[in-house]
Design a protein that fits this description.
The complex is a heterodimer. Chain A is an all-alpha fold. Chain A contains 16 helices and two strands. Classes of the chains: A mainly alpha, B alpha/beta. At the A-B interface, helix 9, helix 10, helix 11 and helix 12 of A face helix 4, helix 5 and helix 6 of B.
C-alpha cells in the first residue's frame, strides 16, 4: 500500500513538472515559437494516438476510422462555438446556417466527444462483427464516407459544405499565452481517464479479448458488448482530440481529415508500442517534432556552397517517413515501449512481457 | 459414489445431440447425463468427437440436432433447417422440429455456471497469472464502465483480488502470481486454467484433457486436486481424459465415444470389462 502511495506521489510530481515545463517554455520561447507548436500539436496527437491505442493496442481491434471520428468531433466543436455575431459571415452561402446558439468551449469539447461516441455506437453495431482486416477496411470506408457527407451541400447550413469553418474559439484566443497549459490540461485529463479505464476490470477484459477471443468468451466476457465499449470510448476521446486539433489549426475543413491522418496516428501508435500509453505519448511528441520541425530541412532546397544538395526537395520528408515506417515494422515491431509503460520499467515481470506480434 | 447417483439431480443432460460439419458427422445422436456432485469422464480414441461435445455444451458450436439442458433449463436446442435437412446424416431429424431453437453465446453459458478449460491451453498470454484469474471474476461484476473507471467499485475490486489470491493458493500458484502466465511450466499452466475457470463461480466444471502432457506423478496429484476442488466448491465435474489411470481412479461414471457415437456407459469397473470398449481402443482381430 505504501509503495502504491509513493508511486502516486511520484507520478503526480512528474505530471506537475510537465505542466510547469510547458508553461515555462511557452513564456520563455513565446507563443509562436516552434517548440510551442510542437508541444500543442504533439499533445493533441498524443490524445488521439492513445485513443487509437485503446482500440488497436489494448482491445486488439484493428480499426482505421480515427480520422472520421476526429472529423465528427472537430465539426461538432466548431459548429457549436462559432460566436453568434459571426455566424452570418461564416455561413454566408447558407443564410447564416441552422444552428443559432453558441455554447462554451468546455461543454462544446464534451459534446464533440459525445457526438463522435454516438457515431461510433451506430457504426459499431454492424462493423464490430467483422474481424481483423475486414474491420480495418470497413472503418476506413466509414471515415471516407463521413468526410464526403460533411461536404454534402444539403446539410450545408449545418456543416458549411466544403467551405471553411472559422472564427470559433481557438487555442490562441481562449487562453492567450497559456495555450500549452490549456492543451496539456485537457489532454492530461483525457489520458488520465483512459489510463484509469485500462487499469480497471474493463481494461483487463479488453486485454483478455486481445489475447484470446475464445478464452475471453469462455470467461463470460460478452465480446460484442466489450468491443462496442472500447470502440465508443476510443471514439469519444478521438472526438475530443479532433476538436482540439480544430482549436490548434484555427480553421476547419473536412478535406484535411483524410485517411493519411489515420495512418500518421497509426504510425505513432506503432512506434510507441501497441499496448503502451506512455509509448504513444512519447512517440507522438517525437513524430510531431520530426515532421513539423527537425526534419523540415528535408523539404527545403538547400545550397551547399554552389552545389544543390541532392534529394532535398519538397516531399522528400514523406519519403523519409515511409522508410522509417518500414524500418520500424521490420526491426522494431514492439516500438519504443512494447506493451510496457514508462512507470513499469523497473518491474521484472513486466520486463519479461511483450506481446508476440 | 452410489449415494451421489441416488440423488439423481441432473446437472447436465444431452439429448440426441448430433453435430455435423458439411458431410462429416462429428457427433451422432449422443445422449448423456451428468448428475449433481459426480465426476463423469468422456473417453474415446482421437477424433471421436469429445471436444466437439464440449463445444456444443459451451455454445461454441450450435448442435445440428438435439437438446442440451443445464439444471433442467434448455441451453441449446436445434434441429436441421434449410440446406441442412438434405445433407443431414444423423438419426431422427424431425424429433425437435416443433421446438424453438435455443442459441446462447459462450459467455452467457459461462454466466449460467458452466466453466471450462481448453485442450490446448488458452491463457491470456500477455498477462500475469494473477490477472488471468482476476479476469474470471469480471463476469459477476456489479460495476459498469463509469463506476469502474472512477474506482467506485473499490470494495468489489478488493473482494475479487482476495478471491483471486485465494484461488491461486488453492491451486498452489501463490508464488507465481506475478509471473507471466505463459512463462509457467506446462503443469502449472493447466492448474492456472482451472483456477481461472473457478473464478467464474461455476457449478459445473468441464475439463478438456486436464492431464495432457503430465507425467504419472503429476497426473496422480491432479486427480487428488480435482476431487479436492470438487468437494471444496461443491462442483460437478465432466472431463475428457486420455490417462486411463486418472479416469478409473476418480470418475463415478464413464461415457465412451467412438466415431461420434456413444459405444458404452458405466462405472469404471464396467467399462474396463466392456468388450466393445476394448475393441475400440485396441482394435479387433478381423478373421
Amino acid at each position: 500500500m505504501k509503495k502504491g502511495n509513493m508511486r502516486l506521489i511520484i507520478s503526480l510530481l512528474v505530471v506537475a513538472a510537465l505542466y510547469a515545463g510547458g508553461f515555462l517554455i511557452e513564456h520563455t520561447a513565446g507563443s509562436k515559437s516552434m517548440v510551442v507548436t510542437v508541444l500543442q500539436k504533439g499533445a493533441v496527437y498524443a490524445l488521439i494516438a492513445v485513443s487509437m491505442n485503446l482500440l488497436n493496442g489494448f482491445t486488439g481491434l484493428f480499426s482505421l476510422g480515427q480520422a472520421g471520428f476526429m472529423l465528427v468531433g472537430a465539426y461538432a466543436y466548431a459548429i457549436l462555438t462559432i460566436p453568434m455575431a459571426k455566424r452570418a459571415a461564416v455561413y454566408q452561402y447558407y443564410d447564416g446556417g441552422w444552428v443559432q446558439f453558441t455554447v462554451g468551449v468546455l461543454p462544446a469539447l464534451l459534446v464533440a466527444g459525445l457526438v463522435a461516441a454516438l457515431f461510433a455506437a451506430l457504426i459499431g453495431m454492424p462493423v464490430l462483427r467483422l474481424k481483423g482486416d475486414y474491420l480495418a477496411i470497413a472503418t476506413l470506408g466509414f471515415a471516407e464516407i463521413i468526410r464526403a457527407i460533411v461536404q454534402w451541400d444539403t446539410i450545408g447550413p449545418l456543416t458549411n459544405g466544403s467551405n471553411l469553418l472559422k472564427t470559433y474559439p481557438t487555442l490562441k484566443n481562449i487562453m492567450p499565452g497559456n495555450t500549452v497549459l490549456f492543451t496539456f490540461l485537457v489532454v492530461g485529463v483525457c489520458i488520465g481517464l483512459i489510463l484509469l479505464l485500462i487499469n480497471s476490470t474493463y481494461g483487463r477484459a479488453f486485454k483478455a479479448i486481445r489475447d484470446d477471443e475464445v478464452a475471453a468468451e469462455a470467461m463470460g466476457i460478452n465480446l460484442f458488448r466489450h468491443k462496442q465499449m472500447a470502440f465508443v470510448v476510443s471514439s469519444f476521446f478521438a472526438g475530443i482530440g479532433g476538436a482540439l486539433l480544430a482549436m490548434y489549426q484555427g480553421s476547419l475543413q473536412a478535406n484535411s481529415f483524410k485517411s493519411a491522418m489515420t495512418y500518421e496516428i497509426l504510425l505513432i501508435v506503432v512506434i510507441g508500442g501497441l499496448g503502451s500509453v506512455s509509448g504513444s505519448v512519447m512517440a507522438s511528441f517525437l513524430f510531431i517534432a520530426c515532421s513539423e520541425w527537425w526534419l523540415r530541412f528535408l523539404d527545403a532546397e538547400t545550397m551547399l556552397g554552389n552545389v544543390q544538395v541532392p534529394l532535398l526537395a519538397p516531399g522528400f520528408r514523406m519519403v523519409v517517413f515511409s522508410v522509417v515506417i518500414m524500418v520500424v515494422v521490420l526491426f522494431f515491431r514492439k516500438g519504443i515501449m512494447g506493451t510496457r509503460e514508462l512507470w513499469e520499467l523497473g518491474n521484472r515481470r513486466q520486463a519479461k512481457g511483450g506481446r508476440k506480434s | 459414489m452410489s449415494e451421489n447417483r441416488s440423488q439423481n439431480a441432473n446437472v447436465l443432460r444431452l439429448k440426441d445431440i448430433t453435430m455435423q460439419f458439411g458431410g462429416v458427422v462429428a457427433i451422432n445422436n449422443l445422449s448423456l447425463e451428468v448428475n449433481q456432485g459426480e465426476i463423469v469422464a468422456l473417453i474415446g480414441p482421437n477424433g471421436a468427437g469429445k471436444t466437439t461435445a464440449f463445444n456444443c455444451i459451451t455454445g461454441v458450436y450450435q448442435p445440428t440436432n438435439g437438446e442440451v439442458d443445464f439444471h433442467g433449463t434448455p441451453i441449446a436446442v436445434n434441429h436441421p433447417q434449410g440446406k441442412m435437412i438434405r445433407q443431414y446424416a444423423g438419426i431422427n431429424p424431425d424429433a425437435y422440429k416443433n421446438r424453438k431453437p435455443v442459441v446462447y453465446t459462450p459467455d452467457k453459458i459461462t454466466r449460467m455456471g458452466i466453466a471450462r478449460t481448453f485442450q490446448n491451453i488458452r491463457l491470456f498470454k500477455s498477462q500475469t497469472a494473477f490477472d488471468n484469474v482476476l479476469i474470471g471474476t469480471h463476469l459477476r461484476r456489479s460495476s459498469n464502465l463509469f463506476t469502474a473507471t472512477f474506482r467506485l467499485n473499490a470494495r468489489e475490486e478488493k473482494a475479487n483480488r482476495e478471491k483471486t489470491a485465494q484461488l491461486l493458493e488453492i491451486v498452489g500458484l501463490s508464488e507465481e502470481a506475478n509471473e507471466l502466465a505463459t512463462s509457467l511450466p506446462y503443469g502449472k499452466q493447466r492448474r492456472l486454467e482451472i483456477a481461472r475457470a473457478l473464478a467464474t463461480d461455476p457449478t459445473l466444471l468441464l475439463l478438456d484433457e486436464p492431464a495432457a502432457g503430465m507425467n504419472p506423478q503429476e497426473t496422480d496429484e491432479l486427480g487428488e486436486f480435482i476431487v479436492d476442488i470438487k468437494n471444496r466448491f461443491q462442483l460437478t465435474v465432466f472431463m475428457i481424459e486420455h490417462h486411463m489411470n486418472l479416469v478409473m481412479d476418480i470418475s463415478d461414471r464413464i461415457y465412451v465415444l467412438d466415431f461420434g457415437r456413444q459405444i458404452a456407459e458405466g462405472t469404471p469397473e464396467e467399462i474396463q470389462k466392456n468388450p466393445v470398449v476394448i475393441a475400440a481402443y485396441l482394435g479387433v482381430d478381423e478373421e
